[in-house]
Amino acid sequence: MESLENHLLIAMPTLADTFFNKTVTYICEHNDQGAMGLIINLPIHITLAELLTQIDSNKKPTPMLNQPVLSGGPVSPERGFVLHAPQQGWASSLALSDDIMITTSKDILMALGTEQAPPDFLVTLGYAGWGPGQLEQEIIENSWLTVPASKDILFNTPIEQRWQKATENLGIDPAHLSSEIGHA
Question: Residue 177 — φ and ψ, nearest 5°?
């Protein structure tokens, strides 16, 4: 299977894992050692302003920081990730595509809500991980659909509409997805 880096995994209605029900996961890394991704449509009950105030009590809330923090997945939920539009200068950044970077350092968090912040971003806590061959097997078992990632879905589509929008990008009406394996 080709690498699914910079693709979205769309959970099928048949996916039995309640954590991943109707999730969309951005795949950051996929190779022979496994895969790593961030769920982009599973908000947790904390805003970015609240999270940043916990990190630095002097952080001033702004309207830009009212967005929810997302659960990136069940692995290492204390670890933060920022997916953002390309912008250099952060202590720990990696370009994932021409349109998307990931940064894991505190310096970008402290810049959010200021003029130094990237123009588009989302913040997740935790990540989703798969061992060697595991994601490929789950795709064979009809647990996931895949589509190339879209910065429009990541940064411009409301969180509650990301699953439907990603599915529609495949040319599929989500209402026509069957919950039975092997049926359309």
Answer: -75, 130
Smallest CA-to-CA distance from 49 within 27, 64, 32, 34 is with 64
Mind listing the domains of the chain with CATH numbers?
A: 7-176 (3.40.1740.10)
pLDDT, tens only, 49-102: 999 988 887 877 787 789 999 999 999 999 999 999 999 888 889 999 999 999
Inter-residue contact 90 to 103 (CB < 8 Å):
yes
- Contact 72/112 with Cβ under 8 angstroms? no
> Is the separation of the CB atoms in 29 and 5 below 8 Å?
yes
Tokens of 39: 């769920």
Instruction: Please report the beta strands in the chain, taking only residues with DSSP state E, as ranges in sequence order.
Output: 7-11, 24-31, 34-39, 43-47, 68-71, 75-84, 93-95, 101-103, 121-130, 144-148
Rounded CA gap, 134 and 131, in Å? 5
Partners of 34 in the β-ladder: 31
Tell me the pTM. 0.91
Would you tell me how many other CB atoms lie within 10 Å of the CB of residue 120? 17
Distance from C-alpha of 18 to C-alpha of 61, rounded to nearest angstrom: 33
Tokens of 73: 């997945």
- Identity at 154, one-letter amino acid code: L
Give yes or no for a contact between 184 and 19, defined as CB atoms under 8 angstroms apart.
no
